[in-house]
Design brief:
The protein is of the alpha+beta class. The protein has helices at residues 5-17, 118-129, 133-145; strands at residues 22-25, 40-44, 55-60, 66-76, 79-83, 91-94, 99-108, 111-114. The radius of gyration is 15 Å and the shape is globular. The two termini are 25 Å apart.
């Protein structure tokens, strides 16, 4: 069953506001290679301002009914900027109030990865710092493998 974000997000937001962790299925390819279409992510409520490198759930769009999981890549004062790992351009500015939660874990192919600490956090930061070279390498890899399951 697929539930539209407009119907599901109030339930997710209420759970995060109560301090609960929430699991969602990620869709799309904007966060490749760290998140793939169909991966399950675990969100935790924000207890402080997110830091560069965190993967966050952000409410965006002119109607504020669009939600994205992207990496926080820049903070200027109280303005936050995000970018998908497979994208070249940033989105923003956003405020801390637009950030609804932080991704802590990813469940994929029977494995669990902590994205907010350790090796996977370091890899995400390195990926961000090496952009746009990292994005070019990802696109080249997809072309060489003939992997057309997800658009980048």
């Amino acid at each position: 069953m697929i539930v539209h974000a407009r119907e599901l997000m109030p339930v997710i937001l209420a759970a995060l506001q109560r301090g609960q962790h929430v699991r969602l299925t990620a869709t799309g390819g904007s966060m490749r290679p760290f998140l793939h279409n169909g991966d399950v992510v675990e969100l935790e409520p924000l207890d402080s301002l997110p830091v560069i490198g965190n993967v966050v759930l952000v409410r965006c769009g002119s109607d504020r009914e669009r939600y994205v999981l992207h990496r926080l890549v820049r903070v200027k004062g109280e303005k936050l900027f995000i970018r998908g790992d497979a994208q070249t351009s940033c989105e923003g500015p956003f405020t801390q109030g637009d950030v609804l939660g932080r991704v802590t874990k990813c469940y994929s192919n029977g494995r669990t990865r902590r994205l907010d600490s350790g090796l996977w956090r370091f890899a995400g930061l390195a990926w961000h710092l090496c952009a746009p070279l990292s994005i070019w390498l990802l696109r080249l890899t997809v072309q060489l493998r003939g992997d057309r399951r997800e658009n980048i």
